[in-house]
Amino acid sequence: MMCPRLVAANRTPLAGAYASNPTQGTVVAQRDRRPGSGVTTMQTWELIAREQIRDTLARYNWSGDAGRLDELAATFSADGVLEVRGRDSLRGRPAIAAFLGGVAGGLAAAAGDPGIKPVVRHNLTNVLFTALTPARAQVCSYFTVVTHVGLDHFGRYRDILVPGGQTWLIKHRKVTTDWAAETSALARP
């Protein structure tokens, strides 16, 4: 799964104000409602799906940063896959929680000095929806991680999400670390 470069002709406009058309269940970008503009619409389900997906991505990072690994694992589907570049893929919530628990467990040891409070903060940016249907979404994003060492590491998530109850769940997440500090508390060589 790749994150393609943006091609203006293929993108649904998301900037600007939107006007709702409840009879058609669509949302129309105000700037594209000019006569002869070839109005581009987005259905209401898509707006809701996008926000639910952003919420899932945020819950993954907030739960992980707080050490709530069961809540983090709950952002995956029951048979979800976590693929970290250079490691064997993990399938299922228990395996994912166990692996990430081992990574987080090393954080306190990496701090070394008992006077240093181990802290981890994942920051997610540039969430790009490369495909979205009512049954499946492909999303690419960048992450930056700050720990007690400062900038610890950064990279990319490439996700496939599926609907699950009242939310969207990660079916497959590929994690690629693009850079890590020599003293990284979390990223492993």
Provide a short characterization of the protein structure.
The chain has 189 residues and is of the alpha+beta class. It has helices at 44-65, 69-73, 93-111; strands at 18-21, 26-29, 41-43, 76-84, 90-91, 120-133, 136-147, 150-164, 167-180.
What would your notes on this structure say?
The protein has a six-stranded mixed sheet with strand order 5-4-9-8-7-6. A three-stranded antiparallel sheet has the order 1-2-3. It has one domain: Nuclear Transport Factor 2, Chain: A, CATH 3.10.450. The protein has about 190 residues and is α+β, with helices and mostly antiparallel strands. The chain has helices at about 45-65, 70-75, 95-110; strands at about 20, 25-30, 40-45, 75-85, 90, 120-135, 135-145, 150-165, 165-180. The longest helix is centred in the N-terminal third of the chain and has 22 residues, at about 45-65. Mean pLDDT is about 80; it is low at about 5-25 and about 30-35. β6 (about 120-135) and β7 (about 135-145) form a beta hairpin. The protein contains three helices and nine strands; from the N terminus they run βββααββαββββ. InterPro entries: NTF2-like_dom_sf (IPR032710), SnoaL-like (IPR037401). Pfam families: SnoaL_4 (PF13577). This is SnoaL-like domain-containing protein.
Key attributes of the depicted protein:
alpha+beta, Nuclear Transport Factor 2, Chain: A, 9 strands, globular, NTF2-like_dom_sf
Domains (count): 1
Radius of gyration: 19 Å
Any low-confidence stretches, pLDDT <50, length ≥5?
4-23, 28-33
Looking at the structure, what is the overall shape? globular
**Helix fraction?**
10-25%
CATH topology grouping? Nuclear Transport Factor 2, Chain: A
On the 0 to 100 scale, the average pLDDT is: 82
* Element-level helix/strand string: EEEHHEEHEEEE
CATH architecture designation = Roll
User: What is the CATH level 1 assignment?
Assistant: Alpha Beta
Q: Which strands sit side by side, in order, in the main sheet?
A: 5-4-9-8-7-6
Structural class: alpha+beta
Number of helices: 3
Distance between the termini: 23 Å
User: Biggest sheet, open or closed, and with what strands and sense?
Assistant: 6 strands, mixed
Beta-strand proportion:
35-45%
Tally the beta strands. Answer: 9
Domain SnoaL-like: 46-174
Pfam families: SnoaL_4
Organism: Mycobacterium parmense
Protein name: SnoaL-like domain-containing protein
